[in-house]
Amino acid sequence: EADKQVISGSPITRDITGEEFYSTIYAIRESTLEKGLIWVGANDGPVHVTRDGGQHWQRVDPKGLPGGGRVDAVEPSPHQAAKAYISVLRYQLGDWQPYIFKTTDFGKSWKRITKGIPADYPVRVVREDPDREGLLYAGTEYGLFVSFDDGNQWQPFQQNLPVTPVTDLKVHRKDLVLSTMGRGFWILDDLSALHQSFDKMNASEAMLFKPRDTYRYRYSTFGGIAGLPGPEYPRPSVIVDYYLPDKTNDPLQLEIFNGENELIRTLISTPDSAQKKSEAYRNMATNKITYSVNENLENKKGHHRFLWDMRHTGAWDKSDNRRYQSGPVVSTGEYTFKLKVDGKILEQSCQLLLDPRVAESGVTLSDLKKQETVSLQIISLLSEARKLADNTEKEIKKWKDKTGMTEEEKARLNKLKTLKNKLVNANGAYPQNMFISQVSYFNSPCRF
Length: 448
Prior knowledge:
Elements: E1 25-30, E2 38-42, E3 47-50, E4 58-59, E5 70-76, E6 84-89, E7 100-103, E8 111-112, E9 123-128, E10 136-140, E11 143-147, E12 155-156, E13 166-172, E14 175-180, E15 185-188, H1 192-200, E16 207-208, E17 214-216, E18 238-244, E19 253-257, E20 263-268, H2 274-286, E21 292-293, E22 302-308, E23 333-341, E24 344-354, H3 356-360, H4 365-400, H5 407-423, H6 435-442
Helix pairs in contact: 4-5, 4-6
């Protein structure tokens, strides 16, 4: 605006930093659909658009927008060239209303779209999801909002985000990345469920959402633990989202199959009682399926997120908590998830992709398959050795307190003790590593 094109701080002392200059372009973005289609917003209110790379500009301020506000964000739609969004801040002028406008005709007309956002929640940024048209995210002075119908209705999307100004948003590889006024970045991993929820979801039926294709990757997750420096990375995993209209009567069962339709992992939710627990265990045992109870596989009402660690079933262990845990990492390819909900089976598939950094180092799919084969052989050997050690210990306990043993029985007991000593490390500091420890060492994670 002409009345803003003055020297800041005049007439007594000029502003040295230039922070308070107006008539400055504050937001600029080019359309991803049409070359040369550029939207700009200034920090004193005007909105302009060009369709020829800046040779000619047209002022297209929304008629319902009071002047003088800061156009904090412009957002050309990634789905329609003629559609765009703007968000405007006016709280510096004492106006705390939310201002989001949408155009579908290159700015000739605008519609204000703020229904559902409180009247005193200024909006700093609005973005449209590149993978689902009409899915909008708005960053306000007090957190995050989402719209599934192109802005006709908004609802809070705060999750575990602190109440803080959200200064910018970006959807990157189906993750929602946002910055805050607290100089922090937050990431909501995997928006796949949002892309599917309102298209296919029936609130009265259970639903398993299709997981996004995921890179098979590894990295250290020890940063931030026990005072160690470094970021607290989430563990490498495939995100499996599902919805339950009510709490299930039976424990959930999740089966994971590889591309050859081989069952590689079975997990069940934590049963609610000893009776249900025994039933779940017995049903599984009848089919001779090795499985793990995982408390993160919840069977309560609502939307749930389960993280599959991209691993096979682990080795047998006499401890219920460690049994079948920490199996070898699977190879790349297609994997199918079957979720059993009260007798109904829900099914979805996704691809595990080779980490491009690993591929660049020369590792091939054939290498991964060979590694997987050897790792499964090691797991099988480790299970057999642990079961043998456990049975041996039980036999020793039965015989060691018996009185009046014959020489033959004593010889059998000594053989059992000798076998145990070859399988299991002796007690004490720095014992010699015996067979099970040596096999466990081979089961340690490799680097690709």
